[in-house]
Model the fold of this input.
Amino acid sequence: MMERSLSMELVRVTEAAALNSARWMGRGLKNEADDAATTAMRTVFDTIPMQGVVVIGEGEMDEAPMLYIGEELGTGSGPAVDVAVDPLEGTNIVAAGGWNALAVLAVADRGNLLHAPDMYMEKLAVGPESVGQVDIDAPVIDNLRAVAKAKNKDIEDVVATILHRDRHSKIIHEIREAGARIKLINDGDVAGAINTAFDETGVDILFGSGGAPEGVIAAVGLKCLGGEIQGRLVPSNETEIERCRKMGIEVNTVLRMEDLVRGDDAIFAATGVTDGELLSGVQFKGSYGSTHSLVMRAKSGTVRFVEGRHSLKKKPRYVMEY
Done:
């Protein structure tokens, strides 16, 4: 079983990844930013007292330096946990100096996170008020009406967020036809999904397809917040279909919350790399850097915002390399 102290230990991981990758903000080098986040995250993970295994992530074993599926993380003592990880959610965002880049991860007791390959996942996410009112198989207009009713607002006041991709042109058209408003995002659908559970972000529902790792991470965050995400894996070729079969996943099956994250205990941690609606990005002040993080635990329902001030002279060397 996970210990309460693990929550704050995991914030150290996302803070390090954010500090390291933020050095690359606006420099047009997304791979370098991603590598910086991965290096820092892996280094700090290995100081955390846990027996972690990556069950869904963006890397494969032959694609170093990515954190690959099956990689073991932690000191080898402490709780046995599944890890879903995205060292830098929004590599293009950081390269361009844009909005809502995060260093983000999620953990749950061993066997409780969806074990799936890295591929696209169709997603529908809402906050607590709309739980049980939406259906990924329902028409867009029906889901917008359901959210409007659940949140006691007109459909014209509903804000849907969706990745700005050609593949979403039909959904975008249907949202506009319904009269709802849209917040298009270039990257970063973990933030898009989590934002549905915070009134201050102004986001009510997330539509569209994005990475499967981000879907599992978002599911943990929404479980902590009492929200909901539904998903469906979208393989693009026979190889991906076969990999799903080997992992025991039916590709056309709707994945509900309990399919994505089982049990009553899971932890979500994220640190802002660039500014967003919910988290401020890293700032460097000469001798120190500041971070803004979110850490949540499903079992207790605790939601913490953590502001960190980090002495850059005393941090390990990986934070200073860029």
Observations:
- The CA atoms of residues 265 and 299 lie 5 Å apart.
- Residues 6-22 form the longest helix (17 residues).
- The mean pLDDT is 92.
- The two ends are 38 Å apart (CA to CA).
